[in-house]
# Entry
Amino acid sequence: MKQLTIISGKGGTGKTTVTAAFASLSDSHVMADCDVDAADLHLILKPEIEKSEDFQGGRTAVIDKERCTQCGECVNLCRFDAIKNYTVDPISCEGCAFCSRACPEGAINMEQNLSGKWFVSHTRHGYMTHAKLGIAEENSGKLVTLVRQQARLIAEKEQSEYIIIDGPPGIGCPVIAAITGVDLLLVVTEPTLSGIHDLERVVGVARHFDIPALVCINKYDINLNNSKQIEEYCSQNMLQMAGKISYNPIVTKAMINKKSVVEYDCGELTEEVKEIWQNVLKALNSK
# Structure
């Protein structure tokens, strides 16, 4: 099977719109929504959950009142001021475990947090794995890896040709977890100054991990000068353009109707997305 991750250097460039469209065009795939901090692929695909399990990510210190002598060592050492009256504030605790190691009575234990949930669901376009982090929870890189693992297991069982991954924005830990070991990246950018800057950053990450990447410019016609600048950057850096998508307010109507831009007739834009999918397939199948 081939794995494709759709990423961007910033949020709001249209990753999920493109992912949902690809899901509509592919005949043999499993989807993985790895933007676990703000998952929204389910808003378009309306998944029916078949499996749900808790995700335990970080750890929080808990003080055993019976063993604690209130010596004050943990209070003095905690850099996050998470211990008040010998009770740990779970919001302030960063889970560093320093207090548990330093406690002379061994009265502090590190307990796992319930950080969120992960799901295996079925949609009108096949299986999808996705997750939801709890409010203010972290460790999303670990959760991204779990979501990808579940997608791979399903793809192997179903003998699917592709895994289509909706990646998180940025260049941090979740992104690294979403792109490691994949066959191809599709970087979705937009013709704005921040879009150009973040394209350069995310391409740097892709090259660091030696993963081939294609570039797609979404809403290219809102600023033709910036779009030309992006194309020149790609040419200078030997990056292949997958295609360009024009701006069309009808995309919002498609999302409101819980349909991809392929299912909801968006005219010329639909054809542009289909062309990009064909270019992605050529690049994937040449690996």
About this structure: The first strand starts at residue 2 and ends at 8. The radius of gyration is 22 Å. The mean pLDDT is 92.
